[in-house]
Amino acid sequence: MNKLRKMPGIGMRIIKSAIGVFFCFLIDMLRGNEGIVFYSQLAVLWCMRDYVSETRKFARQRAIGTVIGALYGLVLLLLRNRLAGTLFFEGRLFYGAIVSLFIVVVLYSTVLIKQKQASYFSCVVFLSIVVNHIQDANPYVFVWNRFLDTIIGIVVGLVVNCFTISGKKNKDILFLSGLDDTLLAKNGSVSDYSRIELNRMIESGLNFTVSTMRTPASLMEPLRGINLKLPVIAMDGAALYNINENRYEHVYIISAEHCDRIRGYFEDKQVPYFANVVIDDVLLIYYQETDCRQYNGIVEQLRKSPYRNYVKRTVPGDENIVYFMVIDTCENIDLLYDEMTKEALFQTLKVIKHPSTEYEGCSLLKVYNKNASKENMLAYLKRQLQIEKTVTFGTIEGKYTYLIKPGDFNRVVKLVKSQFFWK
After folding, report:
1. For the chain, what is the radius of gyration of the CA atoms?
2. pLDDT value at position 366?
3. Is the per-residue pLDDT at 393 higher than 60?
4. SS3 content of the chain, % helix, strand, coil (to 5)
């Protein structure tokens, strides 16, 4: 029997929207019902966003649009009174032409002041004045009320959406989460709940970042929509990458001597490899021409990404290599790994293997600087931020502060909320 679909919860945006609408009713009563509360409530609903920064942005658009529309509406009302009885204001068709010409002026005004986002609201306010209420006994009162009601709604929306009942924030903790099977849902993205709540807390001062084996290029899509302010620990601790500035803040590279010996080892065994090099904050991936199906397949698939830069040639001897990678069948990788771990060279390096999530029946083998670890990079980040306490989330029992079971992808954010806000 199919399971019933779980009903989504009522979010804070819904609750705050209802509160804002109620406050508009209350303010209208205090004004003696002189305005049109409907316009205040529309402004509240428009300004109510998931994040406070978005609320300010949309409130500003609405306010600018209202001012422009109301001003031009007032201008047309004054012209109508001055030219009453003339041809231009007697015939409906002529009046319609004048209104249409004013639309050009209204829209062009938003372009001149570089506020094109406010153009729609400018036109809505202008048309509501000169079309719907031109015949009012005193249209000037409507212009004033239309302006005032909208501003009231904007202010209510800002106040309500900025209000939080969570209390003080704990900004002395660095929260570090794994990515795959931890923060990401099964579809490879962050859930709407986690994205919205995480961004709200980051906006409030939360120190949060992620740690993963992925390269910065493969982080971009799953973390899209997450407004991380701290750099991420990437490449299994080999790199600290600032997504906002597209900059590597710290990298553990393999020494030139080790790189020469590793290249020689792979070439002697005729093992095709990838060499990942960081040059001026750009990741270059050197590769060779080969008949290996898995090797060529990963090149063709990943080189299409705008975040990756593949170079078909032997890596120059003076480049700083972050890590080497080999892809092959699970059996061949197991054999290669066993051979390498017996070599004295690789005992002074970090060598790991893991199944490929993209190629069934294949595994990846990677060689890093021995100091390239999530623990070392976390310690470096803590020193940079001058934060002592950390709370970590992952899927390996006994290694993290909180164990996250696969499939429980919202648990990270729920636990962060319980730690970040002081009761």
Report:
1. 30
2. 96
3. yes
4. 50, 15, 35
- Number of Cβ atoms within 10 Å of the Cβ of 398: 6
Task: For residue 4, report the phi and psi dihedrals to the nearest 5 degrees.
Answer: -70, 140
- State residue 99 phi and psi, 5-degree precision: -60, -40
DSSP letter at 67? Answer: H
- pLDDT for the residue 2: 43
Identify the residue with better confidence: 291 or 18. 18
Which sign, positive or negative, has the C-alpha torsion 327, 321, 269, 366? Answer: negative
What single-letter DSSP state applies at residue 254?
P
- CA 421 – CA 423 distance, rounded (Å): 6
The pLDDT tens digits of the residues spanning 312-343 come to: 888 877 788 999 999 888 999 999 999 999 99
Q: What strand order describes the sheet that includes 207-210? A: 207-210, 173-177, 389-394, 402-403
* Domain regions of the chain by residue span: 12-162, 173-251+374-420, 256-369
For residue 94, what are the contacts with CB-CB under 8 A and spacing of at least 6? 87, 88
Residues with Cβ within 8 Å of 52's Cβ and at least 6 positions away in sequence, in order, are 161, 162, 200, 203
Retrieve residue 289's tokens: 């021409």
Look at residue 405 and tell me whether its pLDDT is greater than 60: yes
Measured between alpha carbons, how far is 128 from 69 in angstroms, rounded to an integer?
Answer: 9
**Biggest alpha carbon distance in the chain?**
101
Please tell me the CATH superfamily of domain 173-251+374-420, with its number: HAD superfamily/HAD-like (3.40.50.1000)
Report DSSP letters for 159-184, one per residue.
HHHH---S--B--SEEEEE--TTTTS
pLDDT of residue 89: 59
Q: Kindly tell me if the per-residue pLDDT of 84 is higher than 70.
A: no
- CATH 3.40.30.10, domain 256-369, yes or no: no
Tokens representing 237 are: 């601790």
